[in-house]
Structures
1.
Amino acid sequence: MNSHSSSVHIEVANVYKTFGKASLKKTVLHGIDLQIGRGEMVALLGASGSGKSTLMRILNGLHSLDATEGAVVKIDGQVLQESGRLSPQVRAIRSRIATIFQQFNLVGRMKVVTNVSVGALYPLPLWRTLIGLFPRTTELKSLQALHQVGILDQAYKRARSLSGGQQQRVAIARAIAQGADLILADEPIASLDPESSRKVMELLVRLNQDHNCTVLVSLHQVAVALKYCSRVVALKDGRIVYDGPTAALTESQLKDLYGSDSDLVFDDLETSPGKSKQAKTSSKDIPVFNTEPSRSSHEVYAS
Ligand SMILES: Nc1ncnc2c1ncn2[C@@H]1O[C@H](COP(=O)(O)OP(=O)(O)OP(=O)(O)O)[C@@H](O)[C@H]1O
Ligand SMILES: [Mg+2]
């Protein structure tokens, strides 16, 4: 938790999520309890199918949780959903949550600046959103946000003409224009090359450090979690199996988390700048990392 943190931003208690009906029922989250403080930057790790995206979607109200007694999701102290029901305040609460997806979720044929402006629309009536009629101040705010992420020069191009890394920066600009103070980033770098990944992660760090945004970011790359996030929450088969400092994760915990995919994780660590030189040879129960997470974001604007 950084020095700005003072209150609980995300509060999750007794969350279960079941998909399907009758014999096709499948419970994918099993009693999740989690608290994340305002201003924290937390990595959500776990093998494919462990429930990361489902949890993210519960946190922004896109999935409803099971109607279990005591099940609640609160954002900034306000109930977002409780025992299977979304709060009537969901639109207002969501207006301060930005979700960033692996596949960017931009409207490709629309201009970049219009895609960004969509983030700042909550107070406007729906009809203005639908016809894309934004006040001039919204457009200015969007241009400022594009400047902050280093792609102001792309503002009037169609979103689909941008590279993947640029499109993800548009998604981050949308979060800035929205004025979100909670960023849920679901594998934001999974489709990006290493250089674009670095820029996107550094922008998230910057939002966290300079704007005191709370960031929950799901990642497949443990090395990236190590570099940018001081806390890890790890899911396995829909349960939290680790919640603590990134630096204290052990090799055996990682092996347990990723099962047969853990070789990939260790290959990933081999190329991590923050990796302990002893990682591969260390005892299974001592931490595989020997460095503090890097919090540098000075090169964010270099594009
Ligand atoms: N809409 C849905 N209907 C039915 N099952 C679903 C649905 N969404 C997710 N699941 C199932 O829930 C489980 C968890 O999926 P989820 O997408 O949350 O995992 P994940 O950790 O995000 O995986 P990945 O790393 O591959 O993105 C999986 O078994 C998945 O098949
Ligand atoms: Mg997922």
2.
Amino acid sequence: MLKKALIVSNIFLFCCWIRPLFGAHCGVSRERAPETARYLALFFASGWEAIAKYPQGDLKEKIQEELVRLSGKSLEELPPESQKVLQEALKAVEIALFLHQRGDEKDLPRLLGRQIEVILAFRCGIRVKQPSLRFRDPYNRPDPWEKRFLEKFEVEVVKDRRISAKGSLEDSQYRYLYPLWVHKSCLRCHGGPQGSRDITGHLREGYRERDLRGAVSVVLPVY
Ligand code: HEC
């Protein structure tokens, strides 16, 4: 079933994106990389907030509202380089919602994440994922760099001195890790009782408010 959904979604993606493929122009300069990575992470955080708070709402609109709340800026107000990247992410949301409404994939959180990740990789060469020390999907298994900082974030939680994010400029890429904390609204799926099934059919982890759920990890190629 999942395989079929993936094939359908990939063919759809291919048809949607092959024509304007060479016109994406979402390259990011070294100077703009830190803010673009941050806006992208906030976009993901907005996605979770919207899913958690408005199960019945218009997700595309709610994500943009949450983005304004978290970043203080609307998409149109972002610097042009960041805006182009986030526009691609927003198109991926549209495709995910289309596929979900058609019934191709029931698990909307998973579909949304994968769709944004695929589109950003395909169109902009940007790698995004959501690693966690207790990942639901093996795709979100942290690499050694992510694991090191996730463990640091967790220690900070215990001490209650929360570091906000970790950024690092390497030769031709900018890496960024933005922690995602558990809020009350996430508990519906990630809270207790541990081991019971949430609405998407996954097992709840038994997190509590203010725990570290995971992070958004961004690898941006820079010029
Ligand atoms: C409607 C249920 C639902 C709600 C509400 C929800 N999540 Fe999730 N979450 C999921 C599902 C399903 C996955 C697995 C997605 C996948 O396979 O990529 C997931 C995965 C994640 C991951 C990736 C790590 C992993 O386990 O694979 C993070 C990070 C995350 N959620 C954060 C949050 C945060 C933060 C909130 C609250 C603001 C939240 N979620 C609310 C269903 C939910």
